[in-house]
Amino acid sequence: MNDKVMVRIDGEVIAATAGQSVLQVARANGKYIPALCYMEGLSPQGSCRLCMIEIQGVKKLQPACTTPVSEGLSVTTHTAQLAGYRKMALELLFAERNHICAVCVSSGHCELQSLAQEHGMTNTRFDYSYPSYTPDTSHPRYVFDPNRCVLCARCVRTCAEIEGAHVWDIAGRGVASGPVSEMQRPWGEAESCTSCGKCVQACPTGALAEKGWAVEEMTKQKGVVSTLDTMRRGQ
Prior knowledge:
Layout: E1 4-9, E2 12-17, H1 22-28, E3 52-55, E4 62-63, E5 74-76, H2 80-96, H3 111-118, E6 142-144, H4 154-163, E7 168-171, E8 178-181, H5 198-202, E9 208-210, H6 223-233
Parallel strand pairs: 1-5
Antiparallel strand pairs: 1-2, 3-4, 3-5, 6-9, 7-8
């Protein structure tokens, strides 16, 4: 039997199951915490830092997606400080790569774009890096554009944990890091790729897209990953 613990989120006492993350408990109880690298059905990573929360008695902010609940835990999910940190994180994401919404196939259906609008981000105080990455168009059905990648690694985890093909991984260091297919082979030459498209559906931006879609047409079905995970577990 799963142990129950009582936690306090934004002043409300909530019954949770030991082992759940703060983000899971919050969302299950109608409390919204923004996140970009998190996706239901995948292991948490905590890389985007958008789900940072304040925990009573802890000086540093903590990511809600990787912080497990415990008896008596008291967290605050929305403050002026948290809003400022989240907006700064979004600004850094936009400055790091080339997120030009006007020419992106996922414009209007992009999680990064939606989060920026939600947090009132109309510009960035940081200098743009303007990297020059070459899109990989070698796959017959899909395209990978590193210029629009936010390093959430949802594609990597989906391919490994849901499809079991392990096509994608993260290579490089720091801002130069990014997803690579099958030890840096062109995606179209990756022998382990099953062309299932799950990584494309998991991508929150236009970095992974299906060929043949015009600007604002690339809608994605995020529920595919969580549904397949649920079916696999027989829940």
